[in-house]
Amino acid sequence: MVAPFDATEFRRTLGYLPTGVTVITSTGEFGEPVGMACNSFMSVSLNPPLVMFCAGKASATLVDLRRSGRFCVNILGSDQGELCRKFSIKDIDRFAGVPWTDSPVGPELGGSVAWMSCVIEVEHDAGDHVIIIARVTALRVNPDEPAPLVFHRGKFGSFHESVDPLSVAAALPRQTVGGSRRVPPVAPGAYGYARGYAYGYAHG
Q1: Distance between terminal CA atoms of the chain?
Q2: Residue pair 85/201 in contact by the 8 Å Cβ criterion
Q3: Which of 72, 108, 113, 123 sits 20 to 30 Å CA-CA off 21?
Q4: Beta strands 181-182 and 191-198: pairing type?
Q5: In the chain, what percentage of residues exceed pLDDT 90?
Q6: What is the DSSP code (8-state) at residue 127?
Q7: How is the beta sheet containing 155-161 ordered, strand by strand?
């Protein structure tokens, strides 16, 4: 362990954890589309269906999210790295040249892996970010099933399945007597990561 450490080292170390990539979209005060890149999105609960993500307190999009109270999660595909980068840059028209369709909660970006309509349930303070927990009210998966976009150590890539991928049930920890949890072993090569071009991005 290295102590003390600064914010740069903290961020660099967290970069070793691969994450999926999303764009959170909503509608602004005057009906205009708004959105930001986000790799902190994750599931919280199956019943009720809850998800969460973190937004920087300085984010202009956060103001619109709070006002609207609802948003669309666009889970990005492997060929949408440039789009992700665009939604992380401040003071530009992020939707210029981007194909999207309107929805009751916010724009659905064309070519995404999946879309989720969400309504904000609660917000928690967390340092220089806020944690937003929301209920999923509708969802849709791209029938073309594009490969997902993955972010790792400042670079974009994608996911490679093994020849014999694990089932969803086999990949989850199982409950045992006494409340402890047993994690099944993962076969070598079950998960893979293909590096692509390098871009870093932040919430906006």
Answers
A1: 32
A2: yes
A3: 123
A4: unpaired
A5: 64
A6: T
A7: 19-20, 150-152, 155-161, 191-198
Other C-beta atoms within 10 Å of 55: how many? 22
Return d(Cα 92, Cα 75) in angstroms, integer.
22
Task: Quote the tokens at residue 76.
Answer: 């990005």
Tokens coding 33: 């589309």
- CA 79 to CA 94: how far, in whole Å? 17
With a cut of 90, say whether residue 165 has pLDDT above it. Answer: no
AA letter at 63: V
CA distances from residue 170 to 173, 184, 191 in whole angstroms, order as listed:
8, 7, 14
> What is this structure's pTM?
0.78
Taking the C-alpha atoms of residue 78 and residue 167, their distance in angstroms, rounded to an integer, is 22
Q: Report whether 204 contacts 37 (CB < 8 A).
A: yes
Summarize the chain as % helix, strand, coil (round to 5). Answer: 15, 40, 45
Q: Which residues partner with 59 through β-bridges?
A: none
- Least Cα distance to 196 among 160, 164, 162, 149 occurs for 149
Neighbour count for residue 78 (Cβ, 10 Å): 18
